[in-house]
Specification:
78 residues, mainly beta, 4-stranded mixed sheet, 4 strands
Length: 78
């Protein structure tokens, strides 16, 4: 999985790090809450090559920064 280092980086310091596809530092993250209980989904992505990784079934109850809106044109990869 190409985004594995980015997920670890994000978990440790809330930054995505460089894109595993194009090496750009222009990366971002976002979450969307979809249940009243605080669950939803999220994504990390590259703003340059538009590739990203989808985070399904996220527990957002303790997430303070929901990040940016997830762009509709992101190509989600492994």
């Amino acid at each position: 999985m190409r985004w594995q280092k980015n997920l670890l980086c994000f978990a440790e310091n809330n930054t995505v790090g460089k894109c595993p596809y194009c090496s750009s530092q222009n990366t971002a993250f976002g979450y969307r809450k979809i249940t009243a209980e605080g669950y939803g989904y999220g994504a990390i992505w590259c703003n340059d090559c538009r590739k990203g990784y989808f985070l399904d079934r996220a527990d957002l109850r303790q997430i303070k920064n929901l990040g940016e809106n997830i762009p509709e044109d992101i190509s989600f990869t492994d």
